[in-house]
Amino acid sequence: GQQLNQSPQSMFIQEGEDVSMNCTSSSIFNTWLWYKQDPGEGPVLLIALYKAGELTSNGRLTAQFGITRKDSFLNISASIPSDVGIYFCAGQGSIGTYKYIFGTGTRLKVLA
Amino acid sequence: SAVISQKPSRDICQRGTSLTIQCQVDSQVTMMFWYRQQPGQSLTLIATANQGSEATYESGFVIDKFPISRPNLTFSTLTVSNMSPEDSSIYLCSTRQGGYGYTFGSGTRLTVV
After folding, report:
1. Residues A32-86: tens digit of each pLDDT
2. Cβ atoms within 10 Å of A70's Cβ, excluding its own
3. Cα–Cα distances in angstroms (integers) from residue A16 to residues A22, A80, A83, in the given order
4. How far is A41 from B63, CA to CA, in rounded Å?
5. Closest chain A residue to B58 measured between Cα atoms?
6. For chain A, what is the total number of helices (H) and then of strands (E)?
7. Cβ B107–A41 below 8 Å, yes or no?
8. Which pLDDT belongs to residue B104?
9. Which chain B residues have a beta carbon less than 8 Å from that of A56?
């Protein structure tokens, strides 16, 4: 079945640094979503991407839909302590389906 | 986007017992989804609940273990039956957010002892 692998699995960074993470699949996806999950909370949608090559920003966050449609990238600029959490990518493989597959997650810790 | 209230937020249960998790949405929605997030893991879809019809379960999940109710367009319940320690997870309900993606409740953290 389809799987989404996220890299890195976890990372420690200093406040103010930029962060990059990615999500890869062996299958093509038509939509990519990026979520953040804070401790004790459900995931919150950050960015949605709808076509290959698309680059979308949300404040300090920028995400890209890979040209091959098998990957996506999330960048966080000038990280702050509240960026700590788990970041999940999610992909929708078939047009018209409501189902998303979630990635393995990247756990981010920011050192003040 | 819809606001989802989920309860209980956490519970510790004895093995062999059952727990019913409630999910209330502040607007009418056609589809509601139940996810499981095992410790340190990603989210796995358990089932899709449509009002007025039987829930549709994903591979590896069965109705006897996870019965779901969907009595109206704003409410759903998930029961975790005959629990074992392996059922210790976060259970999340969600619904569609606009045309894409999901809005999630804050989750129910279940520990089975």
Report:
1. 999 999 988 999 999 999 999 999 999 999 999 999 999 999 999 999 999 999 9
2. 16
3. 20, 6, 11
4. 26
5. A99
6. 0, 11
7. yes
8. 93
9. none
In chain B, count H helices and then E strands: 0, 11
Here the tokens at position B89 are: 């997870």
In chain A, what residues touch B45 (CB-CB under 8 Å)? Answer: 99
Beta pairing class for A4-7 and B31-37:
unpaired
CB spacing of A104 vs B42 below 8 angstroms:
yes
- What does the pLDDT look like over B80-94, one tens digit per residue? 999 999 999 999 999
The CA distances from residue A11 to A42, A88, A94, B109, in Å, are: 21, 14, 32, 25
Percentage with pLDDT > 70 across chain A: 95
pLDDT at A95: 59
